[in-house]
Task: inverse folding
């Protein structure tokens, strides 16, 4: 990934927008969840990453486990949790004559408490690996960890106590944090047990990512990304329906554009909202699509009116990346995300997304009775024409992308989403692509989301369900409590970051089965 | 060292004594001390432990040092400090897109910031090694470390930031803690520059060990040990003269005896005063000698009267270890400290210390007009007779110890301290011993203290000064800011704990040059 450090980015703060975002910030909700059992992690070739968890004893036995130098214990909370862990540390033996030195390791997945982080050699910061060292000078001690962690498994290593005493652990629990109000959760869909299970894990994934903002993942990046927000918001309307949180996020992005009016791909929230110096054209367009969906869900005309100019600026940003033929131009830097796939040429996907966005924008222009409708319509006509003329390969009957005329799954999906072809032809295109099985395939739940959306757009519910069953259902079979950031069924250790230890296993962009199941009655 | 875990020890809490100890607890005093320079540690065969410190830049340059993954910096505070460090962490570059992961390593000596603690293989707990890991989620950050550290050198390692940002450090300082009031420090002695330097380092050592109690060492064990207290109190009367702190410590020991009235060798202070389950007869006797000195310094008859029964109980404890001939009997467990020397047979030393203590106790009995004087005098006569009859080797003209009739420096010193021989013969004994140079020699400043005291007792100031110059002066030459727990001039890496990394380099029992220089006008 070609990270850009744009030190010269000028940020335009819209204080009124930021004040509105702040006004919609609500106190987080809490639950106390106790650790459920004492477990061990054992090697198992059949299990994902080669590790599975086995119960050793019920948590009621924990107080009897005495830990001295070099001892460790792994606890299973029984579900994925996000929050602030606490525990009581009780010395046993002589009075503690040396500090207690502990290491905490948090795992969303068994592998994280099975393989030492010292083996990590990925290119994302080691600081994301959830481990913590604590010296405890005075015992007994009620210890509440000061950072937020995202995990199901907690490993506690006693690096050292002393020959004269050991330590027992009691009351290991977590105070969870979330802005998802379970009391507001809409009733579960009347569907198969399997789809209900998919729905439950989706809802859990979303809830654990709903914090002060819609985070992409509570383990990593703990940040407000527009791509994630777009999908989270869709799922949110069908589940917790926390409209204020969507509104807050839209105002945050709108309040922190650059001098050209572009919204950042993501925002940092603390110590104050700060836009990352990364500008991705697809993520910028998702501002407009998220605003569109927000209005559809809420009919909040005031917000639509206020944020409409910001949405238009994102279309202008995309417009600037078009060539004289109104074709999106592949850029030599990290200009669009689309998917984690270094081989992917993103031209056709962005072209399709622009068309998709323009159609939504035009519908909003009509609602607003906006003068902008005419240039939007004009632009839509031109980019649609360009897509058909330059990106359609009539011999292969597939869309191509970039100077090498690459055939990628993504390009077909986005042209379907764009409605460039009539529905029946579009359905044929998807089927043809599935048969063709392009070498450039989908690697993330984010990309798979749009595949499901595309099947539904062309009216093929069965195909959509097959993707849910085959892809998300596979994660479920592998033991997912929450849906993962990355999942390649043919490469279970896939990570775009060089190590699956750093992957996020509760990731917002993977939460959309609940959206599909509920909205389309699957 | 044969640590005893006596789980069946019954503690008798004297609440009135403990309440008095609590009443004399005073808020600690603080100073803000900034880091003084940026340094590096370089290998040097001539330097102690093979490492010396070299200035790299003044501290004013620190803000320009940008630290990213794998970078580190070492700061020199210019003096030994004890307290709570703080610093400001300022990100430089793009907005921090990953937590900052830092490691802090604190060194009283260069070796502690030069050699990785992972090499440590001593038998004391690793938890004493002063290192700390911190994840910083939000930057910039004013960070105050929550534990107390004892150090001169601070190494800060950036384990990771991210490729998009680095970090600068600002305002690195420490809020020191001590119960030594510098405003109360008695005027420095009128003596040579060299003895003034010895005095300064002694006073600094004492001050950094004066906390909520007289600690043995602020790095390790951070605890109230009776052997250290005895020497600290002596030095304290000549310097800060914090009488309340001595009184507090005496009442703490007296308030927490066992069922036989024995005081513990040391106390833990937090979360509440707790006696360690270690009972050493010499340390118990130091309760009586410390009470004796306290009365001499303060004429506080009320305290003497109250604690007198406790002092007597320590003599009874020693009495129980005598055989039918009134000779101290070597025990098969850790029964007396005397010195860190596994080969040392402690019988003669304890016999000498008992005589020494009995003489002080009889003088106190006279002040109190106590009925106990008669049995004390009777006992004194018997143990003195036994010492002369069974421990004096007339052919070698040296005292011997234990069944193997070991000749140790300690035995001669303690018999001199006991006044078993007339002063002139005692002086000859010390000179003879120096010439004989026993294989069983002194290994700690604690033991060397009594050598100096013995020379002074027999009136040989020059010999006493030679020990100060040759032993403590040698530490000074090696760069000591504060005097060390362990120092063997012929084995600079000596540690009774298996690694010099864990030694304490600011240790109470080493602070007595100031006592000798001031009290005896050396």
Result:
């Amino acid at each position: 990934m070609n990270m850009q450090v744009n030190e010269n980015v000028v940020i335009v703060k819209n204080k009124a927008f930021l004040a509105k975002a702040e006004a919609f910030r609500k106190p987080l909700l809490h639950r106390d969840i106790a650790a459920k059992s004492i477990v061990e992690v054992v090697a198992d070739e059949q299990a994902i990453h080669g590790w599975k968890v086995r119960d050793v004893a019920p948590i009621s036995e924990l107080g009897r486990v005495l830990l001295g130098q070099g001892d460790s214990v792994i606890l299973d909370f029984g579900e994925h949790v996000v929050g602030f862990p606490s525990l009581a540390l009780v010395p046993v033996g002589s009075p503690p004559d040396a500090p207690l030195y502990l290491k905490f390791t948090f795992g969303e997945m068994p592998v994280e408490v099975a393989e030492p982080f010292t083996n990590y050699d990925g290119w994302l910061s080691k600081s994301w690996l959830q481990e913590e060292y604590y010296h405890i000078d005075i015992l007994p001690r009620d210890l509440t960890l000061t950072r937020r962690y995202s995990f199901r498994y907690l490993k506690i290593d006693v690096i050292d106590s002393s020959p004269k005493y050991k330590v027992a652990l009691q009351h290991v629990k977590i105070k969870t944090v979330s802005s998802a109000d379970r009391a507001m959760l809409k009733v579960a869909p009347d569907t198969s047990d399997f789809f209900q299970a998919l729905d439950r894990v989706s809802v859990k994934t979303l809830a654990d990512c709903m914090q002060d903002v819609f985070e992409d993942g509570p383990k990593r990046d703990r940040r407000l990304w527009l791509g994630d927000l777009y999908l989270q918001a869709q799922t949110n309307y069908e589940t917790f329906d926390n409209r204020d949180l969507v509104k807050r996020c839209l105002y945050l992005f709108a309040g922190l554009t650059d001098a050209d009016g572009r919204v950042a791909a993501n925002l940092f929230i603390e110590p104050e909202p700060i836009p990352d110096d990364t500008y991705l054209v697809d993520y910028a367009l998702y501002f407009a699509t998220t605003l569109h969906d927000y209005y559809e869900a809420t009919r909040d005309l005031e917000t639509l009116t206020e944020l409409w100019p910001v949405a238009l600026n994102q279309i202008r940003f995309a417009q600037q990346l078009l060539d004289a033929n109104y074709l999106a131009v592949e850029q030599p830097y990290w200009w669009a995300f689309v998917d984690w796939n270094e081989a992917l040429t993103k031209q056709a996907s962005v072209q399709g997304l622009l068309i998709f966005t323009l159609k939504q924008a035009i519908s909003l222009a009509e609602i607003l009775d906006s003068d902008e409708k005419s240039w939007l319509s004009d632009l839509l006509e031109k980019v649609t024409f360009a897509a058909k003329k330059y990106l359609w390969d009539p011999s292969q009957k597939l869309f191509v992308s970039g100077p090498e005329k690459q055939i990628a799954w993504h390009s077909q999906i986005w042209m379907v989403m764009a409605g460039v072809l009539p529905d029946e032809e579009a359905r044929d295109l998807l089927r043809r692509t599935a048969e063709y099985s392009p070498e450039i395939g989908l690697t993330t739940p984010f990309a798979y989301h749009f595949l499901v959306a595309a099947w539904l757009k062309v009216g093929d519910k069965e195909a959509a369900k097959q993707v849910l069953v085959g892809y998300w259902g596979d994660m479920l079979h592998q033991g997912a409590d929450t849906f993962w950031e990355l999942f390649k069924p043919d490469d279970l250790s896939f990570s775009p970051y060089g190590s699956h230890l750093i992957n996020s296993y509760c990731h917002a962009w993977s939460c959309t089965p609940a959206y599909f199941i509920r909205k389309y009655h699957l």
